[in-house]
């Protein structure tokens, strides 16, 4: 992955998550040789590939396992792990899991060496700021979208129920280990949510007010790669598991990743590249709005990010510089879809999210046509993978009965104005504009 040279985190790819691979990373980061105390933060559900590797690793290293992990990780759970970890300083911290697990590992590693409670570090008026971390942090993703393994950001739910992004160089891991077998059996619903999250990372980097030529290059490469691999990865997962929506089936991992998991490995790499990209800029309006959805209706982070994507896309295409960049991305994605269709032929596998190509070449569309095509891809992917696009599709949502109820719903999003991510959006998002975006999702 050429983009890895732009990351302060050392990125290592391996076919399988083995005790030997973990041992080599630990020796590299700690300078020890099997005698150190290692804190491992993992998802509580069984995962045989991971569990076998840790069992073997535990024969030479002293492992402590902590698994107090919930979606949208909460301060109280993280602090319970921190208090135990502070009593016995580890030689390294390893996080193995999805975004919630990796973010939890980041916070624990930070708070072992920095005083106080996590809540004191959260929000626009945080009472504390992390100063340093000397304990090595190793992050190993088991999903295809978080990007957390290569960023200095973490997302946490305070005891107040508010969800905050914490930004600190202290949260940047020393090593990210991409093990292909850890994503080879990813359930369809997790491929959809985490893959779309990665897509929004790339989009929000590309239209970000903090964008640079380097972040633009990384983001365009990531977006193109995700749009190429996400649907095949999701489809392979559906065919393997036979269920498009169950994210709670036990995972086994794959002892021998095969060609059927190749799209997932491609998506894994692309998601990490998107993480490298948004680590340069931060995210913007999509992620700011998503936090309210997670706070109010406990929507998963990836599904919440997907919710407003095309609405924010439409808004940001009003900016001429952003528009120009996205025409370039759309041409690239369109050409790739044409080439894929030509290679596969009529009997081949055609992405169902790719519509209305009709054999047109790159001269067959105007700039407006390219932008409309890209927008359609974003919407069609959500529809195909079953991600919510209207409030009525969110589990537990009660539709407002009258105009007053609609206004109360829109007013829930006023607190997004205090989120620094909103300031990164190229088109200013006033309270009135945000309320309009919210009400559009009721129609």
Structure description:
This protein has 443 residues and is α/β, with parallel strands linked by helices. The chain has helices at residues 19-30, 48-57, 75-86, 99-113, 188-206, 213-241, 262-281, 285-297, 301-307, 309-316, 320-344, 367-385, 403-411, 431-440; strands spanning 10-14, 37-42, 62-66, 92-97, 137-141, 153-157, 163-167, 175-179. A 6-stranded parallel beta sheet has the order 1-8-5-4-2-3, with helices on both faces. A hairpin with a 5-residue loop joins strand 6 and strand 7. Helix 11 packs across helix 12. The two termini are 42 Å apart.
Brief descriptors of the model:
443 residues; alpha/beta; Rossmann fold; Dehydroquinate synthase-like, alpha domain; six-stranded parallel beta sheet; two-stranded antiparallel ribbon
């Amino acid at each position: 992955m050429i983009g890895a040279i732009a990351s302060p985190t050392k990125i290592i790819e391996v076919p399988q998550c083995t005790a030997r691979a973990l041992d080599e990373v630990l020796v590299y980061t700690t300078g020890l040789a099997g005698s150190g105390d290692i804190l491992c933060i993992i998802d509580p559900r069984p995962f045989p590939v991971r569990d076998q590797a840790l069992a073997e690793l535990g024969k030479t290293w002293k492992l402590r396992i902590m698994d107090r992990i919930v979606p949208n990780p909460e301060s109280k759970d993280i602090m319970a792990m921190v208090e135990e970890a502070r009593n016995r300083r580890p030689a390294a911290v390893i996080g193995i899991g999805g975004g919630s697990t990796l973010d939890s590992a980041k916070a624990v590693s930070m708070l072992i060496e920095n005083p106080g409670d996590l809540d004191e570090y959260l929000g626009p008026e945080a009472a504390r700021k992390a100063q340093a971390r000397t304990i090595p942090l190793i992050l190993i993703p088991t999903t295809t979208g978080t990007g957390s393994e290569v960023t200095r950001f973490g997302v946490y739910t305070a005891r107040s129920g508010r969800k905050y992004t914490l930004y600190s160089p202290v949260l940047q891991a020393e090593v990210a280990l991409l093990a292909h077998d850890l994503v080879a059996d990813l359930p369809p619903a997790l491929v959809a949510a985490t893959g779309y999250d990665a897509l929004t990372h790339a989009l929000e980097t590309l239209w970000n007010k903090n964008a640079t030529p380097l972040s633009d290059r990384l983001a365009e490469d990531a977006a193109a790669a995700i749009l190429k691999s996400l649907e095949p990865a999701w489809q392979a997962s559906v065919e393997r598991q036979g269920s498009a929506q169950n994210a709670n089936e036990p995972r086994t991992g794959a002892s021998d990743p095969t060609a059927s998991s190749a799209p997932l490995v491609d998506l894994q790499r692309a998601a990490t590249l998107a993480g490298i990209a948004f680590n340069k800029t931060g995210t913007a309006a999509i992620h700011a709005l998503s936090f309210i959805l997670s706070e109010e209706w406990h929507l998963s982070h990836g599904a919440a990010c997907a919710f407003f994507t095309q609405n924010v896309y439409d808004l940001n295409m009003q900016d001429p510089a952003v528009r120009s960049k996205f025409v370039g991305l759309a041409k690239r994605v369109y050409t790739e879809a044409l080439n894929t269709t030509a290679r596969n032929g009529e009997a081949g596998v055609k992405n169902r999210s790719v519509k209305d190509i009709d054999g047109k070449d790159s001269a067959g569309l105007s700039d407006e046509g390219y932008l409309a095509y890209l927008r359609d891809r974003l919407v069609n992917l959500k529809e195909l993978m079953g991600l919510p696009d209207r409030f009525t599709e969110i589990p537990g949502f009660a539709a407002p009965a009258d105009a007053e109820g609609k206004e109360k719903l829109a007013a829930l999003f006023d607190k997004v104005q205090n989120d620094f991510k909103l300031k990164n959006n190229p088109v200013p998002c006033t309270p009135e504009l945000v309320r309009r975006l919210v009400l559009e999702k009721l129609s």
